[in-house]
Every structure is written in structure tokens, then in C-alpha cells.
Amino acid sequence: MRPVPGLAVLVDDTGVLEVVLPTGEHRVLASGLGAAMWIALAQHDWDPAAAALALAPTCDVEPGELTGSLRAWMGDLAALGVLSAEPDGKP
């Protein structure tokens, strides 16, 4: 899965991640672990296993468990229209 084109993604000074769809209809806010998961996924080309390996030591959780959480969260984001299963991110 990849982000849909045209997302606005911001992280404010307090570490809150805000993702806004191009239509402006939906807004997703995440702080703490949610923001860290988004950043790790972006840094690892949206590969949840690679992101989990990088993030697991800072979360004190097993990479396999974190991979499952990342995949579930990505599914939730896809249901909201933030992520797409298409390689170019287009819905």
C-alpha cells in the first residue's frame, strides 16, 4: 500500500501528525506511536516489516507483533482513503 497522491502531511511542534486527503473531506490525526509508525513506513517505502524492524527497539515490542499492528493500521488508513493498494498510490 502507498499513500494516495495529493495528501497533505504535517507534523507539528508537539509531534502530532496530521494527514488531510486532497478533497479536504477527511483528516487523520496521530500522535506518539501513530506518528512514529507513519514516519517509519515512509522511510521504509511503505513496507510494514521493514518499518517494524526499525521501530521495534524504540517501542520495546517484538518486530513480528509490530508488523501485524502496522498492517492493521494500514488497512484502517486504506478504508479511510489515505492509502491505496495500487503501486502508484492511485485509488
What does this structure look like?
The chain has 91 residues and is of the alpha+beta class. It has one domain (2-81). It contains 3 helices and 5 strands. The strands form 2 sheets. Strands 2-3-4 form a 3-stranded antiparallel beta sheet. A hairpin with a 6-residue loop joins β3 and β4 (27-30). α1 packs across α2 (48-59) and α2 crosses α3. The longest helix has 17 residues, at 63-79. The chain starts with a strand and ends in a 7-residue tail after the last strand. The mean pLDDT is 89.
Please, what is the average pLDDT? 89
Number of strands: 5
Amino-to-carboxy terminus distance: 10 Å
Total discrete domains: 1
Q: Give me the Rg, rounded.
A: 13 Å
Strand order of the largest sheet: 2-3-4
- In DSSP terms (H or I, runs of 4 or more residues), the helix count works out at 3
The gist of it:
With 91 residues, the chain is α+β, with helices and mostly antiparallel strands.
Topology:
Elements: E1 2-3, E2 8-11, E3 17-20, E4 27-30, H1 33-43, H2 48-59, H3 63-79, E5 83-84
Antiparallel strand pairs: 1-5, 2-3, 3-4
